[in-house]
Amino acid sequence: xxxxxxxxxDPAGLVDLALAVIQADRFPYLATVSGDQPCLRPVSPxxxxxxxxxxxxxxxxxxxxxxxxxxxxxxxxLDEHHNQVRLTGVAEVVTDRAVLQxxxxxxxxLRQYLGSIDNSEFxxxxxxxxxxxxxxxxxxxxxxxxxxxxxxxxxxERGRATPPLQ
Length: 166
Fold this sequence. Notes:
By secondary structure, the protein is of the alpha+beta class. It contains four helices and nine strands, in the order αββββαββααβββ.
């Protein structure tokens, strides 16, 4: 079998490529740490604004204690073509009532399962990115995706490749 040849990546298109992978994967994997043990589980984000991701949780779940002890997390996304995005970030509990209400109003499963937005089990995390990386299938090279301050208005100024995987 011959080795596949990845298509060249235009740095100006990294934001769109990464956002397409995020949009395509309904169940990314969330990595946390419990003591010195990494923990990984699929999640279903309830809202995504660019590279900021919101994940609902129950206070009694293990990941609540893990995030409370260490809010540094990573989300892994994979599309049907095996392109991937790794979104490294910090999770924080959302307390803004307007955001909570918007998420509540647009998620019937939350309403059915929890019954009330004031249910003490309901926790909403906002995962703010500190690093976003994109890799095309078979390329074995991550590209840093620009986001936030320092990027141009389309977030396309700072795309660069990281060294190939070893």
